[in-house]
Amino acid sequence: MPSTAASGKAEAAAALGAALGTTAELSDRALAVAKAELREDRSTREQALQQFRDWIAKNQDLQNCRTDASFLLRFLRVKKFSLPMAQQTLLKYLNMRQTFEHLIFDLDPSIPSVDALITSGYLFASPIRDAKGRRVIIALGGKMDPSRFTNVDMAKVHCITYETLMDDEENQVMGFTHFADLEGLSPSCVTMWSPTEFAHCLRWGEVAAPGRPRPHALTGDVALQQSLPMRHKEVHFLNLPTPLKYVYDFARNRFSQKIRSRFLIHSTRDALHKHLDKKCLPREYGGDMPMAQMIDLWKEEIASKQKRIMSLDDMKLLSDQGIVTRKTTNPAGSTCTGVSTITGSFRRLEVD
User: Fold this and answer.
1) Dmax (CA) of the chain
2) Where is the CRAL-TRIO domain (predicted)?
3) What fold does the segment set 28-103+311-317 form as a domain?
4) What letter does residue 159 receive in the DSSP assignment?
5) In this structure, what are the phi and psi dihedrals at residue 18, rounded to the nearest 5 degrees?
6) 312 close to 164: Cβ distance less than 8 angstroms
7) Which residues contact 39 (CB under 8 A, 6 or more apart)?
8) Helix (H, G, I), strand (E, B) or coil at 140
9) How many of the other CB atoms lie within 10 Å of CB of 298?
């Protein structure tokens, strides 16, 4: 066993690393991925964090914005340390939260209906990473009972799941694998959302959800996927009901080509296991750990992050004027992509 002195030294080093915004807690595998895919190293990370914090401190449109390394790194990593793009993603993220405040604020897992939906197994993360080191987000469509739960319950469970996972730096680097078994999914789950709500939750722009205030709605077409700093690497579907194929096509076509290429539909579990390591799945899907145990562990993980997730409501975007839309008009009246109006230098992005 390590000596007390050695243990104390390790704790001091970890504390120093946290203060410097370093990622000492990352596994060797994640460090290698960060370097190869995100072009992240100590120097790049610390310089980007300092510049990001300076920008937030000077930005009068931001109020109570978190500046801890873990929070800011989720935006830097998803944009491969392009500071201007990370800044834009932060603004869009805050704008999304306020536009859909009724769905995204008050992410309290102890709300009875939300707790019941999580306990049912509708959406949870496997405690076992897949063969590529990613957390696997598991969705069981048949567990969503429209007679018991509302679209607000559904949205809160999704947001609690994503915020909990994004708060882990290993996940920020490695990305996520999604698995959804749609057997038993009721078409009523689709009609819980108006077509306008459904479309704008995927790719939202000039209007907020019907009947809701829109203090910071964007003027332009901004994808939800560009507002949530997550690296979606694989999306697997099992038992897609034929009547819901049109919903799948509708949703899929509103994602970027890069994300669409990562969607896979499987007709059998054997076909699924050829692409997704079954050991990260519940025993009911060929893995080793019972689903009930996975859900219990997931609820413990959520509870450990609850305070940080609830504190997200303190952040405010006072104006959306700094958000660059697809076409931004400059003072001379001409249009441009808007990227030149942001301070900082771009690093060329490749598809990861």
Assistant:
1) 69
2) 110-293
3) Helicase, Ruva Protein; domain 3 (1.10.8)
4) H
5) -65, -40
6) no
7) 80, 81, 347
8) strand
9) 21
Collapsed DSSP state (helix, strand, coil) of residue 55: helix
β-bridge mates for residue 265, sequence order:
237
Strands 176-181 vs 203-204: parallel, antiparallel or unpaired: unpaired
The pLDDT of residue 343 is: 38
User: 1-26 pLDDT, tens per residue?
Assistant: 444 554 554 454 344 344 434 444 89
CA 243 to chain centre: 28
The pTM of the full predicted model, rounded to 2 decimals, is 0.79
All CATH 3.40.525.10 domain ranges in the chain, comma separated: 112-203+227-310
What confidence tens digit (pLDDT) does each residue in 110-119 have? 999 999 999 9
Residue 201 has which token pair? Answer: 């939750």
Q: How many CB atoms lie within 10 A of CB 90?
A: 28
Amino acid symbol at 33:
V
**CATH 1.10.8 residue ranges in the chain?**
28-103+311-317
Contacts of 186 (CB under 8 A, 6+ apart): 144, 145, 146
What is the overall mean pLDDT for the chain? 81
Among 48-52, 68-72, 203-207, 310-314, the least confident range: 203-207
| Burial label, 163 (beta-carbon count in 10 A; 0-12, 13-18, 19+) | buried
Query: Which residue has 């993980």 as its token pair?
Result: 301
Residues near 123 by beta carbon (within 8 Å), at least 6 away in sequence: 117, 137, 138, 139, 140, 157, 158, 161
Measure CA of the first residue to CA of the last residue in the chain; give whole Å: 41
Nearest to 121 by CA among 93, 143, 106: 143
Q: Which two tokens stand for residue 22?
A: 């370093």
Q: Residue 97: which of 56, 72, 74, 65 has the closest Cα?
A: 65
- Residue 252 exposure: Cα atoms within 13 Å on the Cβ side: 15
The first and second tokens of residue 117, run together, are 């939906």
